[in-house]
Amino acid sequence: MDFLSGLELMIDSYQGKEQIFGVNLNPAIVRLSCEEGCVKVIEMARRLGVTADTVRFYTRIKILKPGKNKANGYREYSEKDYNRLRFVLSARQLGFSVEDIQEILNHADKKKSPCPTVRRLIDQRLHETERQLRETLKLRDRMQQAVLEWSQKPDKAPTGHMLCHLIEEFTAEERL
Amino acid sequence: MDFLSGLELMIDSYQGKEQIFGVNLNPAIVRLSCEEGCVKVIEMARRLGVTADTVRFYTRIKILKPGKNKANGYREYSEKDYNRLRFVLSARQLGFSVEDIQEILNHADKKKSPCPTVRRLIDQRLHETERQLRETLKLRDRMQQAVLEWSQKPDKAPTGHMLCHLIEEFTAEERL
DNA sequence: CTTGACCTGTGTCTTGGACACAGGTGTAAG
DNA sequence: CTTACACCTGTGTCCAAGACACAGGTCAAG
After folding, report:
1. What digits encode the pLDDT tens for the residues B138-149?
2. Does position B15 have pLDDT exceeding 80, yes or no?
3. Phi-psi sector, B111: left (phi>0), alpha (psi -120 to 50), beta
4. A138-160 pLDDT, tens per residue?
5. B176 inside 8 A of chain A by CB
6. Which range is most confident: A5-9, B8-12, B19-23, B51-55?
7. Which of A97, B73, B94, B157 has the fewest Cβ atoms within 10 Å of its own Cβ atom?
8. Domain B7-93 belongs in CATH node 3.40.50.300
9. How confident is the model at residue B141, as a pLDDT?
């Protein structure tokens, strides 16, 4: 299909992909704001529920490579960019770092299966998340214990060798 | 007591504070490396089990204000600096940020009780830590679930609209 | 005198965006 | 036509708590 012919046609086929390329697609906006089935940064962000800054961020680090409108320099995000960003956001929800995602996309872009990489990386990140969870849990318990103990203690002014008796006595007790 | 007289006396009184001003205090090292009961950065770090970079960091942001040896410009950490850093490390273990600690120290330095501030701040930080804990827990569960489901799925090459079926199908299922 | 271990301050790096800013564009109203 | 305003661009900086690098100074031992 010729992407430069028939705007009406374009919009029809575009509407057909409504579920893939964004939500609440308003033909009036599409007709007004873009040609060739592309959208600008703020619309792209809205469709995926993120800020324009997030879209610009992934563009800046070249995970997204939208074209540029020759006339005004505006970025033009295509359906491919939409799918790519949706993928990135999904991967972030699973604990992958942006660097991980770049590695995964490198495979996919070479038509190679990213799955072995994905499995390896999630094992790694899962371990880290579990360690993080244990640490946060220990911290929370320590904090709760402190609040509990402190509720029985008075305020005190600092002395020469004691800056805050609450903190220092708690630490001494708990052997931290 | 005159701090400039009698090094022998200094070291005696210093040894008497062994439990306060550091562990494994070796009089020979003290005698060789410092006058006036002060130590250099690496020794300070060793006594509190942190790196010299950490000691320099707190010096840089002016939480520690050690003197300077006029002759060579070396920093001289006193017992007061030791107590202060020990306090900072204790507070960090309780989830206070460095900025929190500066606020706490500001009160203490004016001889005012830091306790009300400490109580207010830990309530705040405890809430944040609990939120963090819930989020990390949810992430961990999501990741475990993904690993479980993926163990039943094959690797696949990317297609036009599917970069990695593992990640995208999981997200679609879980309605993320 | 050299070697090597220590010291100094300063600048940069880490994450995943968020925010600021200067300057360009597009459109609706007055 | 002008003006106002909303949008766009790329770039630089900020966040937290240090870690690491670097150029240059100090000091004791061999």
Report:
1. 999 999 999 999
2. no
3. left
4. 999 999 999 999 999 999 999 98
5. yes
6. B51-55
7. B73
8. no
9. 97
Residue with tokens 């010096």: B59
- Cβ contact, residue pair B95, A123, below 8 Å: no
B167 reaches A (C-beta below 8 A): yes
Q: Report residue A153 as tokens.
A: 């203690």
What are A164's two structure tokens? 């805050």
A164–B95: do the CB atoms touch at under 8 Å?
no
Residue pointed to by tokens 């800020």: A51
Burial of A58 (0-12, 13-18, 19+ CB in 10 A): buried
A29 contact to strand D (CB, 7 A limit):
no
> Mean pLDDT throughout B170-176?
82
> What residues approach strand C to within 7 A at the CB?
A 32, 50-51, 53-54, 56-57, 71-73, 92, 97-99; B 40-43, 52, 56, 59-60, 68, 73-75
Q: For residue B54, what are its two tokens?
A: 């950490």
Domain A1-85: top CATH class? mainly alpha
Q: CA A35 → CA A12, A21, A23, A76, distances in Å?
A: 13, 15, 18, 9
Reduce the secondary structure of A60-125 to three states and give it as a string.
HCCCCCCEECCCCCCEEECHHHHHHHHHHHHHHHCCCCHHHHHHHHHHHHCCCCCHHHHHHHHHHH
Q: DSSP secondary-structure letter at A37?
A: T
Sign of the Cα torsion B89, B93, B97, B99 reads negative
Residue of A nearest to B83 (CA): A161
**Helix segments in chain B, DSSP class H:** 7-16, 27-33, 41-48, 52-60, 79-93, 98-109, 115-150, 165-174
The tens digit of pLDDT for each residue in A44-95 reads 999 999 999 999 999 999 999 999 999 999 999 999 999 999 999 999 999 9
Delimit the domains of chain A by residue range. Answer: 1-85
Burial class (CB in 10 A: 0-12, 13-18, 19+), A175: exposed
> Residue A82 and residue A73: Cα distance in Å, rounded?
19
Note whether A142 and B93 are within 8 A (CB).
Answer: yes
Bridge partner list, B159: B162
